[in-house]
Amino acid sequence: MSNVLINAPKTAKSGELIELKALIMHPMETGFRPGTNGRIIPRNIIQRFVATWNGEEIFSMAFSPAIAANPFVSFFVVARQSGTVELHWTGDEGFDVKEQVAIAVG
Amino acid sequence: MTSRAAIALLIAAFAASYALAQGSDDKRRSGYQDMGEALQKMQDDDSANPGMLFVQLGRQLWDKKAGSADKACADCHAIAVMKGVAARYPAIPQGADTPIDLEGRINLCRTEQQRGAPFPPEDQELLALEAWVAYQSRGEPIAPPDDPRLAPFRAQGEALFRLRRGQLDLSCAICHDDNAGKKLAGATIPQGHPNGYPVYRLEWQTLGSLKRRLRNCLFGIRAETPAWSAPDYVALELYLMQRARGLPIEVPAVRP
Amino acid sequence: MSGNGTSCHPERSEGPLKPQERSLAALGMTRRRTVLSGALAITVVPLSTASATPDAMAAVVKEVTGGAAVREARVKLDIPPLVENGNAVPLTVSVESPMTEADHVKAIHVFNEKNPQPHVFDARLRPLNGKAEIATRIKLNDSQRVLAIAELSTGEFVSGSADVIVTLAACVEDPS
């Protein structure tokens, strides 16, 4: 089950600079913390975040365990054509979540 | 499973409302006012507030059928009706004679209406549902009910608030009344108001209940923590809500 | 990870123990040990865990730059100088750049000196980002310097840094 919050404008003018913000529910367990039994809790992090616009990569980020739990990322992009922005998070334990938003550019 | 459309992203900007209230004789401060600007911004911006992930999850669960009765919360309650509810809990449910908190209320619906197993303490779904309900009261002033039956429980809560206990021999009041605003190590001691719960606490890296916070404090002063089901927590919450009367509900609040 | 085991010490510690508390304290060896081990369980980093150091950071910086010179310019870190909890520290990195085909930021790398690992994140940008600015939230184990290095399309590396004081939580939580 995924839980994602994306903040993106629904519409933009061609050539307009827009900001995309995304939050995703994830523990980002570092792999350096001992649990209550004294043993290290295994690492469980998101490793990669990729954003595409109509299939073309517009931004990507490699995470380390130093990214806070429930990761937040914001970045900018110039709106060029109407279409779909897809955000894709992948990580440990087979974590694989995609989410899309439509942006109309005119 | 996102449902962005259902939750309007907005800037809550409690800073502005608290600034307006300044200058009055009321010396009460929300924990929000003791945070740095960066954390206030994190709380105010719904697209950055990590608590909103739980509000969204709660919204989804509200509509989801559960239990052997196969009923959803939404089958009985329009969510709009929940406005103000979090501002007046704990309360005594119909047919009962002792008060319950909002989590207790949700679990009562869970067992009696949905005919399912109650959520255990700090269960993510319970916190998410509570956050979704309390979110409806965001900005509403805390307004404890006038029900006279609550008075003895509230008095018991106040007594607990003033009770010195633990190896450090401290009471809630010593820190949060007498020394609020001073520093404990690098942290400002807040007045300890309950207006943001369930709260996204950075120390927890997740959403947590007032009960969890109270247990933290008890552990901090090296005192015994009553069982999760103990009536002490509801009594304390009744007193804390009375003490915070009029402060706005900030759910989902962010705290360090 | 942010607790240091400090308990809630009041500045005023009043009066002798009441009788029932004295007896509790006498009984309390086992209990105290439980409490202590509880506090330690969430604070002690095992000795075997390697930790980032300024040297380790310099080494990974070299991996990224291939030993090329890094000029301190154009990179700005927006991070609170006094952090109330190191578990989620808001960080915005911006690089002065026209973001054109001829002159843009290709990557932004962020490092730290004192977490268990020196890497924080690596972001890839391109001209269509229009503005070389990204924001996220990071974990900081301790007060330290955070360094951001931007790789420019011209092959140049520029950097910026910020010193951050991370305050420790005064009250630790029972992990059980």
How is this structure best described in words?
The complex is a heterotrimer of chains A (106), B (256) and C (176). Chain A is mainly β. Chain A has one domain (4-105): Immunoglobulins (Immunoglobulin-like), CATH 2.60.40. Chain A is built from no helices and eight strands. Chain A is elongated and about 60 Å long. The termini of chain A are far apart. Chain B has 256 residues and is mostly helical. Chain B is 40% helix and 5% strand. Chain B is built from eleven helices and five strands; from the N terminus they run H-H-H-H-H-H-H-H-H-E-E-E-E-H-H-E. Chain B has helices at residues 14-21, 37-44, 51-62, 73-76, 85-88, 102-113, 124-135, 151-162, 172-178, 210-220, 232-243, and strands at residues 183-184, 187-188, 199-201, 206-208, 254-255. Chain C has 176 residues and is α+β, with helices and mostly antiparallel strands. Chain C has one domain (1-176): Sandwich (Immunoglobulin-like). Chain C is built from three helices and nine strands, in the order αααβββββββββ. In chain C, the strands form two sheets. In chain C, strands 1, 3, 5, 6, 8 and 9 form a six-stranded mixed beta sheet that branches. In chain C, strands 2-4-7 form a three-stranded antiparallel beta sheet, with no helix packed on it. Chain C is globular. The chains are: A mainly beta (106), B mainly alpha (256), C alpha+beta (176). Chains in contact: A-B, A-C, B-C. Chain A binds chain C through residues 17, 21, 28, 30, 32-36, 38, 40, 57-69, 71-78, 80, and chain C through 1, 41-42, 44-46, 49, 87-89, 112, 115-117, 119-126, 128-131, 133-140, 175-176.
In CATH, what is the homologous superfamily of chain C? Answer: SoxY domain
**Which consecutive residue ranges of chain C, at least 5 long each, have pLDDT under 50?**
1-49
Average pLDDT of chain C, rounded to a whole number, is: 77
Instruction: Give the structural class of chain B.
Output: mainly alpha
Fraction in beta strands of chain B: under 5%
The number of helices of chain B is: 11
Features:
heterotrimer, A: 106 residues, mainly beta, Immunoglobulin-like, 5-stranded mixed beta sheet, 3-stranded antiparallel beta sheet, 0% helix, B: 256 residues, mainly alpha, Cytochrome Bc1 Complex, Chain D, domain 2, 3-stranded mixed beta sheet, two-stranded antiparallel ribbon, 11 helices, disordered N terminus
